[in-house]
Design goal:
The complex is a heterodimer.
Chain A: H1 3-26, H2 30-35, H3 42-53, H4 56-69, H5 71-98, H6 103-108, H7 114-147, H8 151-199, H9 204-214, H10 231-244, H11 249-254, H12 261-292, H13 295-301, H14 308-357, H15 364-388, H16 394-418, H17 424-443, E1 449-450, E2 458-459, H18 470-487, H19 493-505
Parallel strand pairs in A: 1-2
Chain B: H1 2-15, H2 17-22, H3 34-39, H4 41-74, E1 81-83, E2 86-87, H5 88-124
Antiparallel strand pairs in B: 1-2
Helix pairs in contact in B: 4-5
Classes of the chains: A mainly alpha, B mainly alpha.
């Protein structure tokens, strides 16, 4: 670690702590804590969504995947971006119009039943935990590489920072950390892309021509099939990516931080432009790393390719740029885990404690206390899990989180808004079928079962052939909702009329 | 049946604009009659306008996305040269990016119209958002 790294690093940490200090003064109610009082503007929330979404897996993971596997690495960028159309067209506005703090609020606007809220909270917590372990394990490994700190201390460092933001500054601090991170990340990516393009004489054709010979894959590098060779597996993964975003609790929660559906809509627009431009630039980062660092060196530093972007920064801009990019990666990790802690805490404190156990009879002070205890609990629990999960594959955990989000959350969201006959038991079965089938199929898949001892968690021949079960578990989630609905006679046309009117007009709010 | 009765009530409500402001969609017990709003022509206009845009557009973008993944997974159709060493795969992929940005932009314009229609329904049934009139 040199002095530049330490200065940039300390500056970013200090900046986020100043934000937290001012945010803490403004965090007086549960609504301030969970949603920053609902007072963010469209561009602010759009930047925060981008900051929440562009995780280390996006920045370092995709850059590395493109560097090592060419076009196949870029597939992630495509899926992650197109997903925003699902968010914009189907989920964002009804969610804002019906909900208060959590996804469960939105579903409970139609079905006032504890079991529905419980099921929704359970699936949210499961997704948050998988996503969080992935982020923390990735963070620990990265910080270890970037700053030479032990894995254990790296995880604790990130854990303490995220806890401070959320505990004291709630959603206000989290949002601004995410906004600043988005700006830093875009800045770093633009600088790197510019340097890469400069080295290719700003000629895209020349860049592609050089890439044909720059990697061990030869011409195949520029076409699909280097990494993903089983067609159904590719399609399954891509389905999880495009449909999962609209079910991720920490992304959904961001729509409660704006005052109305119109602002929710414009925040998706901002997010789509920022995220999209970022993903276009991942091509330059990946190609640049493959051409100017070389896959041998990338793999030597980290087998998964996660160090491609920082190594590229070093090759093209020297130690100062490398330090800056490393600090950006650190800020990226902090912003995402803070958002995750907050969404996990809201499911525990608001859904399970406030609404199910206390039946909504909680004072403002009790809500705040519960929210803070839950944040602390979620943070400590995930730090502990991350310490023991060091050897788990991060990319697998992230794609699993997307798969559960698409299978357990998306069907129930769609049915709640669009299906008149849908009922309480349908809501419960939709969530549980999606959640359980995704988890069970993954347990039986090659990601968890391998005949080779030590290659995966369980030893044995995989029973389910695909690494990502989305292509089976998403339809099962939808079918589970239909089956549960039809098996029960319950149907409330009056309530559906209310939900339909409120979801589509934004009027008659019951908050 | 109750439906036909409410149906006629709605026609009356939608027909005379003045009456609706003073006479929001509330039942005698003070609850809002959402079924009456749902059946009103102004709300139906909103839903029709939304469906007319959202259904085809959703089928289009999900269709193109899935088609892309099927083509690149099962065939080599897109692996021919578009220009120099850039194959059609990149063109299609970039096309999906352009599609996303275009649809978002188009939707933002359309949604302004949906807001107008939604507002008509809200005004007709006497709902005012306190924040909006602030």
């Amino acid at each position: 670690m040199n002095a530049t790294v330490i200065i940039i690093f300390v500056t970013i940490v200090a900046m986020t702590l100043v934000i937290t200090y001012f945010a803490a003064k403004r965090t007086k109610s549960a609504s301030d804590f969970y949603t920053a009082g609902g007072g963010l503007t469209g561009w602010q929330n759009g930047m925060a969504i981008a900051g929440d979404y562009l995780s280390a897996a996006s920045f370092l993971g995709i850059a590395g995947a493109i560097a090592l596997f060419g076009f196949d690495g870029f597939l992630f960028s495509i899926g992650y971006l197109v997903a925003y159309l699902v968010v914009l067209f189907i989920v964002a506005e009804p969610l804002r119009n019906l909900g208060k703090y959590t996804l469960a609020d939105m579903i409970n606007a139609r079905f006032d039943a504890k079991k529905v809220r419980g099921a929704a909270a359970l699936s949210s917590i499961t997704i948050v935990i998988f996503y969080m372990i992935a982020q923390l394990v990735g963070a620990g490994a990265l910080i270890q590489l970037l700053f030479g700190i032990d894995y254990l201390w790296a995880v604790i460092l990130v854990g303490v920072m995220m806890t401070i933001y959320v505990l004291f500054g709630g959603m206000t601090a989290t949002s601004w950390v995410q906004i600043i991170k988005a700006i830093l990340l875009m800045l770093g990516t633009v600088i790197l892309s510019f340097l890469v393009l400069k080295n290719f004489n700003f000629n895209i054709l020349e860049m592609f021509a050089q890439m044909k010979t720059a990697t061990p894959h030869g011409e195949a590098y520029l076409n699909p099939g280097v990494r993903y060779t089983i067609p159904l597996d590719t399609i399954s993964l891509m389905l999880a990516l495009v449909l999962g975003t609209a079910g991720l609790p920490h992304i959904l929660m961001r729509f409660f931080t704006v005052r109305d559906a119109k602002t929710a809509r414009s925040s998706v627009m901002w997010a789509t432009w920022i995220v999209g431009l970022f993903y276009v630039m991942t091509i330059f980062l990946g190609f640049g790393a493959a051409a100017f660092v070389g896959s041998t060196d990338i793999i030597a530093t980290n087998a998964a390719g996660n160090m491609a972007a920082p190594l590229l920064a070093q090759a093209l801009g020297g130690d100062i740029l490398m330090s800056f990019i490393s600090a950006v990666a650190f800020a990226t990790i902090l912003a995402v885990v803070a958002g995750l802690v907050l969404s996990g805490a809201s499911a525990f404190a608001h859904d399970i404690y406030g609404q199910i156990i206390k039946k909504g009879n909680v004072s403002e002070r009790e809500q705040m206390l519960a929210a803070r205890y839950a944040s602390l609990g979620v943070a400590i629990f995930s730090i502990l899990l991350a310490v023991f999960a060091q050897s788990l594959n991060v990319a697998f955990l992230v794609s699993l989180a997307f798969c559960i989000a698409a299978s357990a959350n998306l069907p129930v969201i769609i049915y709640t808004i669009f299906w008149k006959r849908f009922n309480t038991s349908g809501a419960v079965t939709a969530i549980l079928t999606g959640l359980i089938s995704a988890l069970v199929l993954v347990t039986l898949s090659p990601s968890v079962m391998s005949p080779e001892v030590g290659a995966a968690i369980l030893v044995g021949d995989p029973i389910f052939p695909l690494t990502n079960p989305a292509i089976v578990s998403i339809p099962l989630g939808f079918l589970g909702g239909v089956a549960g609905t039809l098996l029960s006679k319950e149907s409330d046309a009056k309530k559906y009329a209310e939900v339909k009117v409120r979801a589509n007009t934004g009027g008659f709010r019951q908050l | 049946m109750a439906k036909s009765i409410t149906g006629e009530v709605i026609k009356g409500a939608a027909g005379s604009e003045r009456a609706t402001v003073n006479n929001p969609a509330r039942t005698t017990s003070g609850e809002i009659d959402f079924e009456r709003i749902e059946q009103s022509s102004s709300f139906k206009n909103l839903m029709d306008a939304k469906k007319k845009f959202l259904i085809p557009v959703t089928i289009l973008f999900l269709g193109l996305y899935v088609l892309f993944n099927i083509i690149i997974s099962y065939t080599t159709w897109l692996e021919g040269s578009f220009m120099g060493d850039i194959s059609w795969v990149w063109v299609f992929a970039f096309g999906l990016f352009v599609m996303t940005w275009t649809l978002v932009t188009v939707y933002m314009k359309r949604a302004a119209k949906f807001d107008e229609l939604a507002n008509k329904t809200l005004v007709e049934f006497g709902y005012e958002d306190k924040e909006e009139t602030r």
